[in-house]
Amino acid sequence: MIIFSGGTGTPKLLDGLKEILPPEELTVVVNTAEDLWVSGNLISPDLDTVLYLFSDQIDRKKWWGIENDTFRTYERMKELGVEEGMKLGDRDRATHIIRSNFIREGASLTDATVKLASLFGIKANILPMSDDPVSTYIETLHGVMHFQDFWVGKHGEPDVLGVDIKGVSEASISPKVLEALENDDNVLIGPSNPITSIGPIISLPGMKEILKKKKVVAVSPIIGNSPVSGPAGKLMPACGLEVSSMGVAEYYQDFLDVFVFDERDRADEFAFEKLGCRASRVDTLMTSTEKSKELAEFVVGLFDTIVCR
Length: 309
Hints:
It contains twelve helices and 14 strands. The chain is α/β, with parallel strands linked by helices. Strands 5-2-1-9-10-13-14 form a seven-stranded parallel beta sheet, sandwiched between helices. Strands 7-6-8 form a three-stranded antiparallel beta sheet. A two-stranded antiparallel sheet has the order 3-4. Helix 1 runs parallel beside helix 2, helix 1 packs across helix 12 and helix 4 (90-104) crosses helix 5 (109-119).
């Protein structure tokens, strides 16, 4: 199975998937449009979250970073007047240093990620969406800023006027991702922000055409008119989408087979048929590993009900 991942929602679903499927059968394609260089090292937040999840290091209270990490380097730099903009943990920083050294030695981001996964003892296939630089910028009343400046620096507070994923139209799908897509017909789009987490992946040239030939199931990150977490509530209207499960399904409608949304959501299951997909209602709030496992079992079962195109 191939899973498109970004943010914190999809890793929670991955937490359940890795309990019911052998890790070797999981290929996670991760958003890299929120990456940036900090203090000479490449930070890849969504990749790191998945790496830390599969290596049992993740801080489950925050769903990012390493559990019980320390911040001595960050604090010392701040004492000396150097503000990094992102509060990086010491062990987390080691990951960034290792990744960046691999890249400085000539490795692609994919190669560096595969090497890191091996160092962490991970058997699942963790892959960046592309080896080319892609960056998400948010247009606000305060000017245009990198997604990390908007979400981390400004706490997602500025009103959003638009979203620009710079470099995506010139980027290529990672060769290892293409290989995985050639060998697997099941694609699961996790409950991450559709605009800035999943959007960059499906916007890569050729990706939508590939997905049209696959069995595609997507899980909504929205309940009612509110995202479970993250800034989708501000980003979706800026992109002309309603903040609702219907808005998410509309964004994926070109290639979507089955859409999963929460049992508390008042959306009409039959309304999704107008978008050319089926809809299934279930509990999508993953408040524990057991809840994640239950949702994972439900979602995996849906693929058997789809006829591959």
